[in-house]
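Action item from last meeting closed. Structure (164 res):
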């Protein structure tokens, strides 16, 4: 095998493992909060896309999308943010409320990306140590707030189900 191709293959597998590890860490954190979610690709596919986390589940999303959140978690933003924008745009076309949340661990995120996502009413969670430069965007939040927001969302869902 060509050494350059081998090196590229190793780098890609390392990046893939890092992304899966990031999702796993978020899964463990969400589990620790006691927030319900679904990750099954077959059940979770929405408009041809499979969200990282569908909170609380697909059944709730199908019955009343305003009572569900689509959470996309990306270690690195690169071009992947466009997938999230596409999901949000497709949902808007179909009259589904603004319930797409995006979380990244990367501080090297462009203003254009945050501006585009927040204009589509996507909540963007950015690492706390670089949040200040994005504070001016109405739907940009520090990453630490994501877990508070998930807890609050979970409590609202629990209260709604108790009222019914």
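Sequence:
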């Amino acid at each position: 095998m060509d050494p350059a191709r081998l090196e590229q293959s190793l780098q890609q597998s390392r990046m893939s493992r890092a992304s899966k590890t990031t999702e796993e860490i978020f899964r463990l954190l969400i589990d620790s909060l006691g927030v319900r979610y679904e990750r099954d690709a077959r059940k979770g596919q929405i408009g041809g896309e499979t969200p990282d986390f569908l909170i609380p589940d697909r059944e709730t999303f199908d019955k009343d999308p305003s009572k569900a959140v689509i959470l996309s978690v990306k270690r690195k933003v690169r071009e992947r943010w466009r997938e999230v924008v596409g999901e949000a745009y497709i949902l808007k076309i179909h009259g589904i409320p603004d319930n797409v949340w995006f979380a990244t661990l990367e501080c090297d995120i462009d203003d254009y990306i945050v501006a585009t996502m927040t204009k589509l009413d996507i909540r963007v969670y950015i690492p706390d140590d670089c949040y200040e430069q994005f504070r001016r965007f109405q739907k940009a939040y520090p990453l630490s707030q994501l877990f508070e927001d998930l807890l609050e969302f979970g409590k609202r869902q629990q209260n709604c189900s108790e009222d019914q």
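Note appended to the action item: Helices lie at 3-33, 41-44, 58-63, 81-93, 111-119, 143-163.
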